[in-house]
């Protein structure tokens, strides 16, 4: 088995040349492989034009290969070997994806870090920055949250904080600062409130897809933020009050399973 990694390639939000280059570079790292089937789970694949563009690119890069391009949240259910259920993913961004055994799908969230992704790490950092700026404008002390965020963002004060944040062009840079909220949640009421609101937003995504798809099955929790921040996971479980299962397998295993299905079809 050959592993390779690289930066994200959201087919809906990235410009076509950048997305193409990142996909080409990633496949190039795999060496001289000629797969018989390939499943690509991509953020933004729910947008038909984005899905088609990625499919066409993969067809050029992997000739004579059976291809499937799906939303990346679809991989969560496949990796969990769940035919009917809901994937709740919270990492840099957030999305809920539901699928029934008959193949009916529903999705909420996944709008991208500049527009939505409520409850995800970028959203949490944005809420934290706004709270710290509000305190500054009101003449209040920055509190543990403010002190931690300024330190993590390498800012002397709130004015420099805004400058440094605006200079961050990649969502992963924003997402990395979300840890300050969890580190201070037990000593800063603002941080605790942000965690609570994040859990509420994520639970709302689940309720919406559950209603639309009328899906039976477990809720699979996935994403680096949700699986690595116990405080958020507990808050989400409290909000949902439904059976939830942590995704134990890497999502790429879902892509492998879906590719195997292509070979059997």
How would you describe this structure to a colleague?
The structure is a single chain. The chain has 265 residues and is α/β, with parallel strands linked by helices. The protein has two domains: 1-80 and 249-265, Nucleotidyltransferase, domain 5 (2-Layer Sandwich), CATH 3.30.420.40; 84-248, Nucleotidyltransferase, domain 5 (2-Layer Sandwich). The chain has helices spanning 16-28, 48-61, 72-79, 121-137, 143-152, 158-166, 171-176, 179-184, 189-213, 224-228, 230-240, 252-264; strands at 37-42, 66-71, 85-90, 94-99, 105-109, 219-222, 244-246. α2 links the parallel β1 and β2. The longest helix is centred in the last third of the chain and has 25 residues, at 189-213. The mean pLDDT is 92.
Total count of domains? 2
Number of strands: 7
For the largest beta-sheet, the strand count, sense and barrel status come to: 5 strands, mixed
SSE order in H/E notation? HEHEHEEEHHHHHHEHHEH
Give the CATH architecture of the largest domain.
2-Layer Sandwich
Give the low-pLDDT segments.
none
Total DSSP helices: 12
Helix content: 40-55%
> Mean pLDDT, as a whole number?
92
Percent range for β-strand residues = 5-15%
The named CATH superfamily of the largest domain: ATPase, nucleotide binding domain
For the biggest β-sheet, the strand order reads: 5-4-3-6-7
Structural class: alpha/beta
Which fold name fills CATH's third level, the topology of the largest domain?
Nucleotidyltransferase, domain 5
Cα radius of gyration in angstroms: 20 Å
Characterize the overall form: globular
- Which CATH class of the largest domain applies here? Alpha Beta
- End-to-end distance: 24 Å
């Amino acid at each position: 088995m050959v592993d390779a990694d690289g930066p994200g390639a959201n087919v809906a939000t990235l410009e076509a040349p950048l997305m193409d280059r990142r996909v080409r570079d990633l496949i190039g790292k795999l060496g001289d492989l000629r797969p018989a089937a390939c499943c690509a789970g991509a953020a933004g694949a729910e947008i038909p034009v984005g899905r088609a563009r990625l499919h066409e690119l993969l067809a050029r890069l992997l000739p004579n290969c059976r291809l499937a391009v799906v939303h990346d949240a679809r991989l969560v259910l496949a990796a969990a070997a769940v035919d009917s259920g809901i994937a709740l993913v919270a990492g840099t961004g957030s999305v809920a994806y539901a699928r029934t055994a008959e193949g009916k799908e529903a999705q909420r969230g996944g709008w991208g870090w500049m527009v939505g992704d409520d409850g995800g790490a970028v959203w949490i950092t944005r809420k934290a920055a706004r709270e710290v700026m509000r305190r500054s404008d009101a003449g209040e002390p920055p509190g543990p949250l403010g002190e931690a965020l300024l330190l993590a963002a390498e800012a002397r004060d709130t004015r420099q904080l805004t400058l440094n944040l605006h200079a961050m062009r990649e969502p992963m840079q924003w997402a990395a600062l979300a840890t300050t909220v969890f580190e201070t949640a037990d000593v800063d009421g603002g941080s605790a409130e942000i965690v609570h609101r994040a859990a509420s937003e994520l639970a709302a995504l689940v309720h919406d897809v559950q209603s639309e798809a009328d899906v039976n099955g477990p809720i699979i929790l996935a994403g680096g933020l949700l699986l690595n921040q116990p405080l958020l996971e507990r808050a989400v479980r409290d909000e949902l009050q439904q059976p939830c299962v942590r995704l134990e397998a890497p999502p790429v295993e879902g892509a492998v399973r879906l590719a195997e299905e292509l070979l059997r079809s």
